[in-house]
Amino acid sequence: MFDFDKIINREYTASVKYDLRQAYFGKADVLPMWVADMDFETPEFIRNAVMERAKHPVYGYSIRPDDYYQSIVGWLDRRINWKIEKDWILYSPGIVPAINFTVQTFTEPGDGVIVQPPVYFPFFNAIKNNKRKQILNPLIRKDGRYYFDFEDLEKKAGQARLLLLSSPHNPVGRCWQKEELEQLAAICIKNNVLILSDEIHGDLILPGFKHTPMASISEEIARHTITCIAPSKTFNLAGLATSSVIISNKELREAFDRALERLHISNGNIFGTVASMAGYNNGDVWLEELMQYIRNNFDYLKDALDNDFEMLDVTPLEATYLAWIDFRKTGLKDKEIKDKLIHEAGLGLSHGPLFGRGGEGFQRMNLAAPLSVIEEAVTRLGEVFH
Ligand SMILES: Cc1ncc(COP(=O)(O)O)c(C=O)c1O
Question: Is there a smaller number of Cβ atoms within 10 Å at the N or the C end of the chain?
Fold first, then answer.
């Protein structure tokens, strides 16, 4: 029903992914498969809603109406059976800012904050830039799949105030199961560690998997959890800076709200509000088709790597549109892999070591593009890493 095959020229649209290639890779024409936004059109029902609002000639200060909150409540209930109250929802322009507000509001300089590498690298920056102490609880990789290391977490949780969780996990593509999340939360609660559950990829679940919001598991877990969600990855709206933080615990919520107040950023963005509502109210079918398309792109990549590339392996993908590719059998150093990708293959991927420990020898490839682009990327990989 929707055309995910269509090639859209994004050059010179002030796009990070396209227009920062020279600055980031030193080469302006790499095939860009790095930053996590999609090369697909934002669905028409969202564009129409934004254009309708844009027709009104005044773009003054705006509020988020009740319908906005109801669209989020309805989406979470419909999609994942998570029943939340409208009052639990706070606005943030992005998830990375929300992570920083959380670190600043609920920990003090020098406090321990746990991260589980390899993981989305702004987690590390939120700890370092706020002068907190980083505590690593690396994921375990076993037979190509990733797991939490509970034993290690038990040893370290006593030194921490906060854990930054990526659920589903970027970059390893795990959709954490309820039992795994329960076990993680039990250790955190026992040690009085607050959980920041970054669920920005929570809508991007491949067919056959199911996302469990950490805070939906039990009231006790919800009391210790701050959840971040957004329509930005789901509907390709990152440029509209509209995200949500969900906190059922009144004390935590009020503290978070005061932090937002101090910065006076709660006004938000009228187009972000309109787009978010349109997506959450109308996006079910589009999202299901999108995830089928991502599954197909991933299967294409996996079949090619399994059948034709002895030296490359791809991690199973359960969620997100990001493939985590293992280059270690090439025997090359990270810098050599990166140079070959950029200068020989002409591919702009995300460099594994940026994601911290466990990222060495890996590269992350963004699969949210027309299949013809994935085919081209695979051909180029084959020419260099056969
Ligand atoms: C796990 C994770 N959190 C947050 C973000 C970005 O959040 P925002 O752009 O809303 O700050 C990303 C984007 O890739 C992500 O993968």
Answer: N
